[in-house]
Structure formats: C-alpha cells, structure tokens
Amino acid sequence: MFECVLNISEGRDELVLDELSALSGPSLRDRHRDERHHRSVFTLINDPEQLIDDVRSLIGGAFNRLSLREHEGVHPRFGVVDVVPFVALAPDERARARQLRDDTAKWIASTFGVATFLYGELDGGENRTLPDVRRRAFLTLDPDFGPLAASASLGAVAVGERPVLIAWNLWLANTTIQRARELAANVRSEDVRALGFDLGGEVQVSCNLLDVGRTTPSMLYDAVASQMTDSERITRCELVGLVPTSLLEREPPARWEQLDLSPTSTIESRLGP
Question: 95 and 64 in one domain?
C-alpha cells in the first residue's frame, strides 16, 4: 500500500476541485483546501496499480483545467501540479516508492512536455530535498526530465519519495507576520520545516514535521507557546491531510482536539476494515 499526497495550485473553485476529486478515483482518501494559500492537498492511497491510474487521472485533470497565468496565493509554488510525493506505508517498500516516483516524473514530462524535478534519494546516493528543488530549479539545477524551461501556464513539477510527514499549521492572534516568521525560524530544525505566512488579517506558522518519532505536534505547539509574549496566543491548530494511528497514540487524548487530531483523521481509518 502506497500513499501519494498531491499538492495542487487551486484552493478556491469548489466546482473544479470536485471535478478533480472525481478524477482521483477510489484512491482518494482526503482533500484539504485553503483559499488563502490557493492550494489543495489530495491524499491518495492504494495498491500501486490503482494508485498510479488515479494519480495520472488527477494530474491530467489538473493540467487540463488549471493555469498559473493568473494564479496568486501566499504559499510558494512553481507548478499547477506543484508537488507529487510518494510514500511507502511499509518501510521496506521505499525502493518501490522511488520507482513509482521516477516513472511518474518521466510520464509527466513525456505526456505533457512539463519539466519534472526529482527529490528524495536519487541514484548515486544523493538525497535532494524539496527546499533544494524550490531554491535551485532552473538556476543551478536542471530538470531531471522534460524541457529546460518551465511552462508558462503549467510551470514545473517536483516529484518525490519520502517517509510519512505531518503537515500541520498553527494560527496565531495578537501578533505580526514578523513575529510569525521569527517563531517559525525558532522552531525550525532538521525534523521541522516551518514558514510564517500573512493570511490577510491572520498569521500562521505553517509546519512540516519530518520525523514524528522525534517531534510531535504537541511538542511543536508547546515550543511555540513558550515563546509567546504579552497577549500573543495560538487560536487554533490545523491538520493538513492524514496521520498514522501510531502518531495519534503518542499524543494525550486530552490534547487531540487542541491539536486538530482525531481517530477519523488517521490513514488507517480512511482505508476501511
């Protein structure tokens, strides 16, 4: 069983998002949209053959319906289909997940003429990160497949292989974007990627927890809360996508609501009996 968590540069047109959901087939387990980020996260999980069919259907639908020409949103992006990470839910299947990644990147480039960049473990042992791709793409890093320039309407795509990570946001009140960026920098580590965003009257510390064996949402919440001053406060937390049950079991049930976690937001709960 494999997961693919596609980040699509559309978070406002509900009709289009419903169409893309339908194209995602039986593999679609969750969809999270954000109007201000202008971004949606589609979580697909299935056996490899069905998963690839549904991933390709969703990507083709996004390319047919969306364009970057008039896109604006606070989240960094360089493609209509911005990020396509594959995740092996069984740790000994990571080599197969990398093969799914490579095949998908080649298919995107050959079918749509869109540049694709790989991230994760590469041939030769290099471990390229998604921030590396965003920082270096078309400057000091050529695409792995496809044209050497981004498409004006479709952009480029980062296709990766990674372990399970948790995308999780903290919404803050009575503070500034400068402070949100400062707090994000203070909690950033090899286990946590964090950015501060101005969302039009509200600010957010947006986080990716890369190793939940070492850093959990409650640990991150407490780290941010401990640095807040005067009337600054965390108003709510927001989970983006799904989490493994093993993470939920590590968090005190009394904090689940505070952290926006629940038994229904686990990977296992969406797969059925």
Answer: yes
pLDDT by residue, tens only, the chain of 273 residues: 999 999 999 988 999 999 999 999 999 999 999 887 789 999 999 999 999 999 999 999 999 999 988 756 555 678 999 999 999 999 899 999 999 999 999 999 999 999 999 999 999 889 999 999 999 999 999 999 999 999 999 999 999 999 999 999 999 999 999 999 999 999 999 999 999 999 877 899 999 999 988 999 999 999 999 999 989 999 999 999 999 999 999 999 999 999 999 999 999 999 976
Please answer whether residues 19 and 61 qualify as being in contact, where contact means their C-beta atoms are separated by less than 8 angstroms: yes
Here the tokens at position 223 are 């780290």
The CATH number linked to 78 is 3.30.990.10
Specify whether the CB–CB gap between 86 and 3 falls below 8 A. Answer: yes
CATH code of residue 252: 3.30.70.670
Helix axes 217-225, 177-187, angle to 10 degrees: 130
SS3 state of residue 172: strand
Q: Could you tell me if 31 and 151 lie in one domain? A: yes
The total domain count for the chain is 2
Q: How many CB atoms lie within 10 A of CB 228?
A: 16
Backbone angles phi, psi at 232, to 5 degrees: -60, 145
The three-point CA angle 170-71-101 to 5° equals: 75
Look at residue 148 and give its three-state secondary structure.
coil
Distances from the Cα of 91 to the Cαs of 85, 88, 173, in angstroms?
15, 6, 39
User: Which of 85, 146, 155 has the alpha carbon at shortest distance from 121?
Assistant: 85
